[in-house]
Amino acid sequence: MFIIVKHINNHKIMATTKWVIDPMHSEVQFKIKHLVISTVTGSFRKFDGEVITESDDFQDSEIDFSLDVDSIDTTQEARDQHLKSAEFFDAEQFPKISFKSTSLKKVSGEEYKLNGDLTIKGVTKPVTLDVEFGGSAADFYGQTKAGFAITGKINRKEFGLTWDGVTEAGSIVVGEDVKLIINAQFTKQA
């Protein structure tokens, strides 16, 4: 077990455990309205994350997470290239989207509220996400895993993603609200 013990004036203050993202059993998706009549789903294929916790229920954990913008995948190469361009994410200048928690609080049962700072395209804003803790279990190799389902919604324009298009009929091409869906499995460090 990977444990960090903090000491102040030779007094043991707390023991913490580090968990790292298991990318083979995790996914990061987003959904956004297209022409206001349908939804486009995309994902990020490359991401990193870790959780530092003091308790088995993960309350008050410290969470750091980042996405590789160049790994965006909407199943349409031309759209992906447009999203990576300066008109949207500007992957060349801003290669990462990052999140750092400020609090994780249990609401009831397995439901939590996760607050933190989300940085997209150089703009940092506070966000609140809903978290469902799926529990923890040992895998075939004796590693302890913990699973989480994280959902939320952000307004893309608040993060500098301001590109707009309007059809000849006056329909908005891309909606402003982006739904986030993250299923994350973390591995306890031994």
Automatic annotation (TrEMBL):
Superkingdom per UniProt: Bacteria
Annotated SUPFAM superfamilies: YceI-like (SSF101874)
Gene3D superfamilies (alphabetical): Lipid/polyisoprenoid-binding, YceI-like
PANTHER family listed in its UniProt record: PROTEIN YCEI (PTHR34406:SF1)
Name this polypeptide is given: Polyisoprenoid-binding protein YceI
UniProt signal peptide: none
Residues covered by the Lipid/polyisoprenoid-binding YceI-like domain: 18-187
